[in-house]
């Protein structure tokens, strides 16, 4: 007998417990469906789900699934949708339900109209979290995580340099590594993957993205300073049986992705995620003699399995393997030119292997109580060279997180507590090839002595054991507070204390105020986080050292404070919302790179005074006319640091940014998306000591970027899309300083002064092919 596995009650119970491993046991999971003309169950997205007599509610997602907090004293759950008969269920000890709504036959024809933003603030959480659904990701090509934020004004993605194609996320005006990037609330992009890692997560693997501004939950660790980006990958209980995606752009970049889901038995299910991409052709649009993108290829796959016993136990495990190669530099560069002055070139080769598992138990008859264990292991091999600079590194990591959650008396008082362990072993060397004896590395030691060398070993081993406790108070009316703390012992850094608090005040049913405060701590991986320095001719100088471990500096430590105001409204019978954010980040300590003291050096130093960031953002989402959504946003940033010669604005960060996104969808499957961004002036580091032809202005001009995409959804299973990036063809005239002579004796060659687009207008096309929902025999 064949049936749709995603709609079975055991699977939904498994979904509840899966989420409980991330700390959500006091929730009810459900699936809302309707009977189509053929009598087959079909998911019903956008249905209203709420507890009778309360203001606590939610909506079903695109797959018909919902998750709602259990409310003490409330047992009547109402499910409704325009054009269908409402249903009221009595909830006792259930942890998962399935509801089939019947069509309301009073009218001969029912037209269902509604509006729901494809990306928006999670109104039920006190932690400031924006949820990006698959619908939002489909507004652009979204080939990987680094390209998933084209239509999201909260996250910036900028190139680290002008030759490697490496993109880095920025939040609250702070560089990407200050944002924790997790995969289903486990360590994701960190360590040696800090710069390249966001390009290792294909967009077709992503089910949704949760963007948290400011400090996150202490359950997930101490490393988030600017925020957390959590990526939820495709799961067997949410995936199609088969999904195929292809992409190609005019530079020859080609990608093919395949997702396959199978259900060998009632208790087991598996999903295989495959990715292959290549960029085979050299391209130099601006005719500066350097490739705009490196050539190369990537092969990447994940196989994950889930198990549901039906008796409270659930587990999942998975493996991932990746091989990524990049080669670039001057046009016609070959291996014969390596470490010579014939032509400048670089290579970045990455091999990465991961394994992870989760196991948990939900206590029978006690949906608020569960225990879960998360485990992962990673091996990351990074081999690269840039001209004469050689960077080779290997990372071996292991992670364990044990989480127990329950209540104190009733559901108004919940808590999570547990233990964690993190192991990182780095074997890392940086050297300047001896073929170029004029280059060297300068280290100014704490005792006043100076070492001049051509090779440095940055290897280290880190062991971190931690314990955490998080208390959640909810009066189920208008106040919710999450207060947590964790204490970790780091073998190099000593004891680390991390307190955090988040609050939500419901001023009215449509008006909420959130506040947060907390501390974040991280040990910077300075070389992988500054690819632009390695790819340039600047000498590396390490000064004002603070310790004998890692790179010679204390960990980055910062306090982050945030306020958020959100208002839902109805105008001309159509819905919308307004969100205003303000965040202030104040660093106690920071490892800083200074480009201004000398154009010939990159000075790394330990902060001795102030470094801070102010971020203010205003955003409006509204259904302007039927099926036409508009998103307007404006952000102001003030990011300053006390450098070696005084306080300056952080370079290459626009102080002002405005954003407009329009999305229109017709009834017959056409979708049109258009995005306009205006970026204000950016400070450019001082280049006055360069030769005249290699000097840059102190401030960049403001500019506008536009992108657009058209999608046609045919009757299942096909969709096709056509788009263009940088529609106005705006590019930097000379993105590389000293491109005409990369081996100049004055060290003028610099690839890191990137404040705008490197490549011009780029057309692309692709298709999506889906077959059915997951099922089993």
TrEMBL record:
TonB-dependent receptor plug domain span: 126-227
Protein's cellular compartments: Cell outer membrane
InterPro entries documented for this protein: Beta-barrel_TonB, Beta-barrel_TonB_sf, CarboxyPept-like_regulatory, Plug_dom, Plug_dom_sf, TonB-dep_rcpt-like
Key word Signal present: yes
A cellular component term, taken from the record's GO annotations: cell outer membrane
Gene Ontology BP term (one): siderophore transmembrane transport
Pfam families for this protein: CarbopepD_reg_2, Plug, TonB_dep_Rec_b-barrel
Keyword check for Phosphoprotein: no
Annotated TonB-dependent receptor-like beta-barrel domain residues: 302-727
A GO molecular-function descriptor: siderophore uptake transmembrane transporter activity
Keywords: Cell outer membrane, Membrane, Receptor, Signal, TonB box, Transmembrane, Transmembrane beta strand, Transport
Topological type in the membrane: Multi-pass membrane protein
Chief place where the protein resides: membrane
Family membership noted in the UniProt record: Belongs to the TonB-dependent receptor family.
Official protein name in the record: TonB-dependent receptor
